[in-house]
Each structure stands twice: as C-alpha cells, then as structure tokens.
Write a structure and sequence with these properties.
By secondary structure, this protein is an all-alpha fold. The protein contains 12 helices and 2 strands, in the order H-H-E-E-H-H-H-H-H-H-H-H-H-H. The chain folds into 3 domains: 38 residues; 97 residues, no CATH class; 148 residues, Cytochrome Bc1 Complex, Chain D, domain 2 (Orthogonal Bundle), CATH 1.10.760. Helices cover 38% and strands 2% of the residues. The chain has a two-stranded antiparallel sheet. Strand 1 and strand 2 form a beta hairpin. Helix 6 crosses helix 10 and helix 8 packs across helix 10. The radius of gyration is 27 Å and the shape is globular. The N and C termini lie far apart (94 Å).
Amino acid sequence: MIDHKWEKETMSRRNKIFAAAVVFILIVSIVIFYKENSKEWMHYQKSYNEKMAAKLNDPSYLKAPLRIEQIWLPQLNSTDRCMTCHLGVSNPIAVDEPQPLTTHPGDFLKNHAIDKFGCTVCHQGDGQVVSVEETHGAVHHLNRQLLSKEYAQASCAKCHMELHDRSVTAKDFPGADTFFNGRDLSYQMGCRGCHNINGEGGTIGPELTGLGSRTELAFFLIHDFQHVEGHHTMSHWVYEHFLDPQKIVPGNPELNFAATIMPNFGFTEEQAKSLTIYMLGLRNPKVEGIPYEYIATKKLAQTASGNTRSLQ
C-alpha cells in the first residue's frame, strides 16, 4: 500500500531543498555580478571620464567603455596594467587631479614614453594586477616590490649606468638627487672598506654587488626579519638596518644568524633613505636584461654586456 503521506513529506522536503538551492544560487550570482561590476578600477575610470567630460565639455567621455588597459613590452619582459587606474598619467589636463588620476610628476615621461617603457621597468611591483592592495601593498615574496616616489630612483641605473660614475652629479642628471646623495654618502662613510662592490672593496661585510637585482625571496631567505618594524621587504630591512644595525641584526643562534659587526653611524632618516635607494640601485646588468637600445649610450651598452668593470 502506497504511503501518500510519506510521499507528500518527501516531495515537500525536496521542494524546500530545491527552493533553498535556487535562492542560494541567486544570491551568489547577485554577489558575483555586483563584485564584477563594482571593482576599484571601474570606480576610478568612471570618475576620470566624468572629470574629463566636464573639463573638456565633451560628453563622449561619459560613453567610454570601462576596460582594463594594458601595455605589453616583450623586450622588457613586462605587461603593465597600471594605467587602468592611472588614466591621467600622460595627460597634462589631469595635473590637478588626485591620485590615481593625476599626471605623472616631473618631466620624466618626455624621455620615457609610457608606450615604450611602461611602468614597472622603473617602479617594479606587479604590473598585471589591478587592485590597490595587490599593487600598492607589500605583497609577500613578490619578486620585485613596488618602488614609489624617490625609491623609483633605484631603477635609473638599469639604463643610466653612468650614474655610478662619481663625476656625474645631480646637475648632469636631474631627478635622481636622492640616489646621488646616497652614492656620495657611501663613499664619504667608506662603505667599500668592508663591503665588496663589483670586485672593489673589503670582505669583512657582506658583498653588495647587484643587491638591487636580488629577488625579495632570495633576500628574505638569508636575513632575519623579526626585528624589522616596517613591511618585511628588502627595502625596509636595508633602511632600518642603516638606522640601527644592532637592533635589526642582534644575532639569532637558533637561525644561525650572527650579530652584526657594522657600527651604528647615527644616520638620520633622510640619510638612511638615500643610502637605501643607492644600495637598491646596485644592479646586475645580466639579471636585469635591459635591451641595448634602452641603454643610455653605445659605450654603456658595452658595459651592460659585461665587457668592463666600471659599474658599482
């Protein structure tokens, strides 16, 4: 005999489960749709288009499609999507806009066109992501952390190798003042008395040749970060170490880290920053792999191939 009551209860349970599943799928779909259509970069593009439409009295900006912008430069092994948010980077009309919509500061783009150089060749970071947290935050073990403001000067020597020549000054190369301050201070303080740089200097301290070309992971694996107060990145470690070597490297027998023997020179924060930028500017041309056509001069292109030892 068929138990109709049981059948009804079973059907009722199935209908409830089905209805709950439909509601769940609907909610998930709405959440996904909302997230996909309310991303950070979309907000910035809408804001930029509205501002340009008002400034230029051109309503066509309001109809501009929202899309991810990208520059692919295989010769530099880079794919940059930074201009997805930094839409006004090369637009002089956007000079008075806030970040990320404003124009690039200074006149760097006159000789470093975005379509030829991109962004990450100078600023490093991950050029393929388009969220603030993943691009402007300290992403753990990212090969190259973002270099912002003065820290971007550490990338100048990738192409402008003459910056390591002490006869070249800020007057000859405007825009790299902090780098030059660090370079000159390194000579004044006799850093090469203990540290070897490109075959020149002492061996008491760690070798600094090509320091800026090391990956974050390679640096992290051989340095103790537990006393670093800032982000656990190479630049923060170097900066805080200049400020107080004994604090950053007091020694850790468990990790087989010896205490530093570097004296505390009492550097100011500005001096420590300058030295850090200079140290990050110590690049290995073979690791960087910058094409010859990007090197400042033909003579320096020969240097990049390893034919001379003039780099420091």
